[in-house]
Amino acid sequence: MPWNILLTARAIADVGAAASKLLERAGCKLIHPPKRGPYPAAELMPLLEGIDAVLCSPDKYTAEVLASPEARALKLISRWGVGYDSIDVPAATANGIIVAYVPGLLNNAVADYAFAMLAALARRIHTGHPSMLAGKWTPAWGHDIAHKTLGIIGCGRIGQAMARRAAGFDMQLLGYDVVRNPDAEKLGVRFVSLDELLEQSDFVTLHAALTPETKNLISTPQLKKMKRSAYLINTARGAMIDEAALIQALSEGWIAGAALDAFTIEPMPDGHPFRTTPNLLLTPHQASWTRETGEKVSMASAQAIVDVIEGRRPKNVVDQKVFDAPNLRARL
């Protein structure tokens, strides 16, 4: 029987042609939902009826969804990207559902984008462009980047890629992570406490995974420790920042500015106060959106599905213990 594959990842429509063909050659029937994700749990559940695998965006795969009758045929969740915080992985494992992801492919694209946001923010590019479109000529004073201090929160693959870019600007590098990474230290990152990083950095960039420990990691106390001339950049997960605290910090000038590509609720609601917050650069979670990277990630995500169909373990699985589960749904 051919596998039914639900495609909720937004990238598939734009850069996933080769990935779709790979799945079709494997005999899959591709199911395109009414809209692309991310889907909340209530909207996701009815879409899973009769679905064998999903190539998904950050849809909410809660324990309830994974244990539902609608998801009884689901064997594999292939996540388009590296973050899997929207998936209850222990619940997936308990239900014999494999969760695959694609670490390593997004590093350069996200680091390029994060540094671009840093530069645009520091040099006021984001205010100069709309000013010119409005027929004005109002140059704005920004801040230097070279020889400043960059604080990197989360020094894994993407954090290290950010460090390599900062080295070209002769920046001093501070790092904070739950584990001191020797590979980051080789790049010149000096690990310090979170408080020291916030107090000393001219730019703070977030590249950590979203966990219960990192949720609201940056809130009022942390923002008040930062320099008034400092900038905050987030291309990781929106929930790492207390949004209400950041709005107050920017409105009252605790820090010089912030650039955000990730938000607690996505898409960001029309009436969100971020839309009128001063000294704030906003983009719609597109840090990984280069066509070259998108094609590679789409292919890797699709390959994970083909691997399972053909009886092989995918290259990157979040929880290897699922293969020992007595109720593993896939035949490997």
Task: Name its key features.
332 residues; alpha/beta; Rossmann fold; 2 domains; seven-stranded parallel β-sheet; 14% strand
**CATH level-4 homologous superfamily of the largest domain:** NAD(P)-binding Rossmann-like Domain
- Tell me the total number of β-strands: 12
Structure classification = alpha/beta
CATH topology (level 3) name of the largest domain = Rossmann fold
Percentage of helical residues? Answer: 25-40%
What is the strand content? 5-15%
Count of helical stretches: 13
> How would you sum up the global shape?
globular
- Average pLDDT taken over every residue: 97
First-last Cα distance? 16 Å
Could you give the topology of this structure?
Layout: E1 4-7, H1 11-15, H2 17-25, E2 29-31, H3 41-44, E3 53-56, H4 63-66, E4 76-79, H5 89-94, E5 98-100, H6 107-122, H7 125-133, E6 149-153, H8 157-167, E7 172-176, H9 182-186, E8 189-191, H10 194-200, E9 203-206, H11 220-225, E10 231-234, H12 243-252, E11 257-260, E12 280-282, H13 291-309
Parallel strand pairs: 1-2, 1-3, 3-4, 4-5, 6-7, 6-9, 7-8, 9-10, 10-11, 11-12
